[in-house]
Design goal:
mainly alpha; 8 helices; membrane; transmembrane; ABC transporter permease; transmembrane helix
């Protein structure tokens, strides 16, 4: 269940990244466009992000959002879930620090981190839960 939850988070992050790369315009990421509706000398506010910045910033955005969840899903360990949650929090903080530009898009990592923290806490609670059949653990299986 925990691995499936992390895979769902990874798919959500990938879907957002692809959607943003395809539909995002410079008006979505440039503060000058948001304030005065004027782009820089090299672009107009209606230009697509990939046309102005190239393909690599959206690719790195996708990697930054998908990789922590995918690693936690593959590893399936509590430490990996915790590390993925911390990585998503850090990505969200980077987004907050760069909220006026393209990398402000990383703010979407904060809701993913909240969901990741929930999954991590469930994983910890399941691990600490006493076993339902303690006699099986000791090799004393009845009959």
């Amino acid at each position: 269940m925990v691995r499936a939850a992390w895979w769902v988070l990874a798919v959500i992050a990938l879907a957002f990244s692809l959607w943003f790369a395809v539909t995002g315009t410079m008006a979505d990421v440039d503060l000058g466009c948001a304030k005065v509706a004027e782009g820089g000398a090299a672009f107009e506010c209606g230009d697509r992000i990939t046309d102005v910045l190239g393909i690599w910033p959206p690719v790195w955005l996708g990697i930054s959002l998908v990789a922590p969840s995918a690693v936690a899903a593959v590893a399936g360990r509590v430490w990996a879930s915790g590390a993925a949650t911390v990585a998503l929090i850090v990505a969200g903080i980077v987004g907050l620090a760069n909220w006026t530009g393209f990398w402000g898009t990383l703010l979407v990592a904060l809701p993913l981190a909240a969901l990741g923290a929930f999954v991590t806490f469930i994983q910890i609670a399941r691990k600490r839960r006493p076993e339902r059949h303690p006699e099986r653990r000791r090799g004393q299986v009845r009959g």
